[in-house]
Amino acid sequence: MLSLQRLQRSLRGVLGLACLILLFTFAAPASAQNGDRIASDVEGQTLVVATKPLPPMVFVDDAALRGFSIDYWNEVSERLGTETQWVEYETVAEIIDAVEAGDADVAIAGISITRDREARIDFSQPYYSSGFQLVTRQGDSGTFRALLSLIGSGTFLVPLLILVALILVVSHLVWLVERHHGSDDFPQSYREGLPEALWWSTVSVITGGEAVKNINRGLSRVIAIFWMLVGLFLLAFVTARATSVLTVSELQSDISTLEDLGGRSVGTVQETSSVTFLDQEGGITAREYATINDALNALNNEEIDAVVFDAPVISYAALDYPDLRVVDALLSRDPYGIAVPQRSDLLEPVNTAVISIGRDGTLDELLEEWFG
Question: Is residue 9 part of a domain?
Answer without folding.
Answer: no
